Amino acid sequence: MERNINNNAELLPVRIYGDVMLRVKVQPVQHFDDKLRKFVRDLTFTMYKRDGVGLAANQAGQNLRLFVIDTQWSREDAEPHPVVMINPEIHAAEGEYEIEEGCISVPGIFAKVRRFNKIVYSYTDINGIEHREEVEGYKAVVIQHENDHLNGVLFTDRLNKLSQLKIKRKLKALLSTTVDGTNIRTDIFTDQEKELDG
Fold first, then answer.
1. Would residue 14 be called left, alpha or beta, if left means φ above 0 and alpha means ψ between -120 and 50 degrees?
2. How far apart are CA 116 and CA 144, in angstroms?
3. What secondary structure does DSSP assign to the chain, as a single string?
4. Owning domain of residue 29
5. Residue 1: inside a domain
6. Would residue 11 count as lying in a domain?
7. pTM
8. Is residue 5 part of a domain?
């Protein structure tokens, strides 16, 4: 049974490994308007439909410094609780946390990544209100992963050489569908979509 995520939003095309937008260091959001609200709504909807716990603007082809996360979404019975982070910054980090990561833009590839366990970060929400928080564990990892996207960094870049060697063939296969710097594929989500839609 599909969870309650339909809010009249649009499913956005997701950029796949090899697309130049995934390597762009995106620009800060300047205007908090209806256009931004619509994009955030669509981005959030797309994250859920692609069964992710995070999605950055440039993964959907927009040069905007923002992402949405929902770290509870991986639980089967979870209801949506998205958090939109606009112009986020990580101010301090400490400790170590290693967990297997994947990415909507790097489908079919999973590997253990070592990140900071605790971070202090700030962001602006969709209403223009600034937040400064401290978090540790899984949520800290998700924020770091999405913040990397805004700087043009993928989780595969953070793997050691042996781990990178193990996924080299799969990355090459994803890269092979890139045309003129663009790699947008819908076929890779077909089975997943069928499962989500019941």
1. beta
2. 8
3. ---S--SSPPPPPPB-TT-GGGG--PPPP---SHHHHHHHHHHHHHHHHTT-SEEEGGGGT---SEEEE-TTTTSTTPPP--EEEEEEEEEEEES-EEEEE--TTSTT--EEEEE-SEEEEEEE-TTS-EEEEEEETHHHHHHHHHHHHHTT--GGGGS-HHHHHHHHHHHHHHHTT-BTTB-B-SGGGHHHHHHHT-
4. 20-196
5. no
6. no
7. 0.91
8. no
**How deeply is 70 buried, as exposed, middle or buried, from its count of CB atoms within 10 A (0-12, 13-18, 19+)?**
buried
Q: What is the pLDDT of residues 45-71, one digit of tens each?
A: 999 999 999 999 999 999 999 999 999
Sorted by sequence, the CB contacts under 8 Å of residue 12 that are 6+ apart come out as 42, 43, 45, 46, 60, 61
pLDDT digits (tens, 9 = 90+) for 141-173: 999 999 999 999 999 999 999 999 999 999 999
Tokens of 2: 């599909």
Catalytic residue among 136, 146, 193, 195: 146
Does the annotation mark 146 as catalytic? Answer: yes
What is the total count of domains within the chain?
A: 1
**Domain of 63: which CATH number?**
3.90.45.10
DSSP 170-190: HHHHHHTT-BTTB-B-SGGGH
Classify residue 2: in a domain, yes or no: no
